[in-house]
Amino acid sequence: MCHQCVIEGVKKTMLSRRALFTGAAATGVAGVAAGLAPARPALAQTGGRVVDLTHTYDSDFPTFDGEPGILTEEAVNFEESGYQLLKLTLFEHTGTHIDAPLHFSADGASVDELEPQNLVCPLCIIDITAKAADDANATVEAEDVEAWVSENGAFPAGALVAMRSGWAAKVGDPSFRNDEAGGLAFPGFATSATDLLAEQGVLAIGVDTLSLDPGNSADFAVHYSWLPGGRYGIEGLNNLEELPATGATIFVGAPKHRGGTGGPARVLAVI
Amino acid sequence: MCHQCVIEGVKKTMLSRRALFTGAAATGVAGVAAGLAPARPALAQTGGRVVDLTHTYDSDFPTFDGEPGILTEEAVNFEESGYQLLKLTLFEHTGTHIDAPLHFSADGASVDELEPQNLVCPLCIIDITAKAADDANATVEAEDVEAWVSENGAFPAGALVAMRSGWAAKVGDPSFRNDEAGGLAFPGFATSATDLLAEQGVLAIGVDTLSLDPGNSADFAVHYSWLPGGRYGIEGLNNLEELPATGATIFVGAPKHRGGTGGPARVLAVI
């Protein structure tokens, strides 16, 4: 049975099961008609606790290429001027940041061209911490997606699906980026999973590591298949362990400099 | 009657009027007990339309000091490397951006130290477009705050109060920053208003101009009284005319570089 068939089967099962709930009131969710994947559930399910999915970053924050991602210098001094501000020199793909389609395509959407509506999404989290503990280059596979759907139901329309590998806790340690031999080593998505997510109408993916692809990827297959399709990705997520597998809403505070390929983003979740 | 007394009087009136609504269902707002200023209404009142309050910015975007706020250069070329990214050189207070307390104090909170919970706020908009059309340096005064409360009720707890002056539409024109004599000229807040807002528990203020203080301010009185108190401000808001005076939720995607005094922010509202 193909992946798509499994998902469709699950959808049907969930639909008949959920049809028992005939009104939004039964689930405490206002304004959402009963059913499987409401058009833009976004905020309706939220209650108000904010979880910051963003790392604080500075020139010591690990980067994919190993070079400092940001340098700061004082531009105005408080003692001299009565106020203060910094000049920042930064490479776009630093800290918790967004990859716009343009990052891996010649003419995809730049970060300022993303639809604002697509920066507020239902957040779904696929937990692979168990296999990542055994394999630093573990990936989210199609089977992990199917297992998630079996347990949680279909992805809400316009969802952002994040990989939780447990890597955020390593951010101050060399093992965030490298294995003991010094090679890049961290979990990511496999295309078997992202192809399935694209079929399911998922809008964006996120990881708690340095890259959408695993550290040992030779071909950036996920970057090349996901981003040019007009979808975006978030790298370097923090605090995913504070959230449920589904039910939170994610706000992607993507930068809006003209023509950008991405950049540091403030990412918040509300649950 | 002092400003505070007026506000308290209005609160009492509104409370007795609102007591008629004895359940959240009456207003279509889930999870919020009836009353005046619920603890953190934030998302409960939202329905799902996202309004982008952020300008796209580049080196031509107007700045307070008149110098380019951002310079971009290609760091990786797509034809050569199969992907691309930019190096950015920017001054923190550029584009639609946040002023952290540290911007106008020696040791206030830096932008990475702001409480995430305080970046998701009920948004209240005070419209002074009529008087700003007659006076480029018009300010939001205590009387404007009182008039807003008379019409809309008390500010929700933890609100962000934004001035709408109509200035966002001028952003490509010299009149966004200057009068015909070349002096700085744009609307802002007066301390008579911000003192009252602080008393009311308002958490942050925002403007659709280059500064929290009006262009002709000689002393930055609002910056010096508002920010060191631990509150923050947003400058350069866009699209406020698409939102009601109250009822939207604002998400302030503040940057999170360590020790920052502020910086470009992605600001979204959901209504």
From TrEMBL, chains A, B:
User: Which Gene Ontology terms cover its molecular function?
Assistant: hydrolase activity
Task: Identify the keywords attached in UniProt to this record, alphabetized.
Answer: Hydrolase
Q: Which domain of life is it from?
A: Bacteria
Keyword Hydrolase appears in the UniProt entry: yes
Question: Hydrolase: is it a keyword of this entry?
Answer: yes
Q: What EC number(s) does this enzyme carry?
A: 3.5.-.-
Q: Which PANTHER family match?
A: CYCLASE-LIKE PROTEIN 2
Q: What is this protein called?
A: Cyclase family protein
Q: Which organism is it from?
A: Aureimonas populi
